[in-house]
Amino acid sequence: MDIKSIIDKLLPILPIASIVAVVIIGITYLSYTLYRKRGGRKKASFSQFSALFLLFGWFAVVLVLTTFSRGANFEGWVNFRLFSDYINAWNQWSLSELQLIVFNMLMFAPLGFLLPLLGKKTRRIVPILLISLTVTLSIEFFQMFSRRGIFELNDILHNTLGSVAGYFLMSAIQDVLVLRKIKVQSLFKAFCIPIVFTLLFTGALIVYSAKELGNLSIRPVFSQDMNQVEVVLNTELKTDDDTVSLYYSDQIHNIKYGNDHAALLQSSFNLSQKGSIRKDGYNRIWYLLDDSGNELIYNYNLKDGTWGMYPESYETVSMAQEELNSLREFYEKWLLSNWLLPKEAIFSTQDNNTLRWDMKQSIKKIAFEDKDFFEGFIMLIPSENNHRPMDVFYDMKENIFVREVNIISPSQAYEEILNGNFYMYNNLNDGDKLIINDYELDYTFDSKGYYQPVYKFIGLLNDQDWEALIPAVID
Prior knowledge:
This protein is an alpha+beta fold. It has helices at 3-10, 14-37, 46-68, 84-92, 95-114, 125-146, 153-179, 184-210, 255-269, 321-337, 363-368, 410-418; strands at 78-79, 151-152, 230-233, 242-248, 272-280, 283-289, 295-301, 307-311, 346-350, 354-359, 373-381, 391-407, 433-445, 450-461, 464-471.
């Protein structure tokens, strides 16, 4: 979730949230005034009322970001595996996952920062912990029962740590104001949590940078429990190791590549950029305008290196084969002149409105020929009135041969299946039956753009199609 996405979610509700907060503060103030007039002795300061107002505003913002900005798309999902988000961030090598961890802490820092201003009882660590746990647990339970989120221990941990970090910072500030000097102990507490996470993420970056190959998103966050799962093998497995080719593509996890092709589309078809680049998971999104003010979306996917440009909506128009063939010449010339199309690509048309170019390679050639190759496809819906395409999707990659690598045997890869070391969207359950009918060598991109060999196992899970990828390169 980037800053612009957060702002977009908050802007529609800020006026209502502000009105509600003012009403609540007003009711609280009137109640306090009546209390004092009737002989109440406890006084409330301006700073206490200000902190209360800010806490109400903070709580409204948190509820919107964590709950009400989402649809009811979750069905009682829970995640009791602590630190699973760290493993997932490592496997994906995803900056957005790391940002989410930090964001969950920053989101609750105002709670710990403001609570000490309410009174003496909230100036100690124990009440801060209890209140923070109560608030984050309430939100997690509400997310789960409303189906607007997942109950996660990781969120509870990071929310509480963020609140504690805010409390330590406020404590250091109060010590300076009261004692008129900086206490080393308070200063250490104020910065200990940020420093720990800075060292953690810096260490991960150093380890990652020192590796030749990137991380594989096909690795599971946790192993499947195979104790109560029946596994049937209906194929023979080779027991010999092998040596195959390793490749590299500069299209993967390369924001410069995405930027370059956004610029190419703008210069080729007289487009201008509107606003800043948006982030949505692995997608980087540009908004472009043509001469008539029509908005187009250009999307580059970091994970698979694909990009495309399209309007939010348009009517597809069928064209005769002769018309499509006549339009082919212009677009093919543009693709070739910008090194986007291999000359050997096979041309075809589909759906009476789409130009398509394909390049396919057999796994045998990829694994054993040790030479550069193109693979993928390009789909383009031409425009009748001008040269700008209505829709274009680019998934053509040039893979550069790097070197040969040793890989494990199929039988060793099968052991990983038996041990549950494979990714599945839904967990296996007691009584499940997994039938493995075949396997094959395949390739997938890692987070540094290397095209790595993997084993693909194919079969049935409870009579439904099933497959899993197992990393093959020997570390």
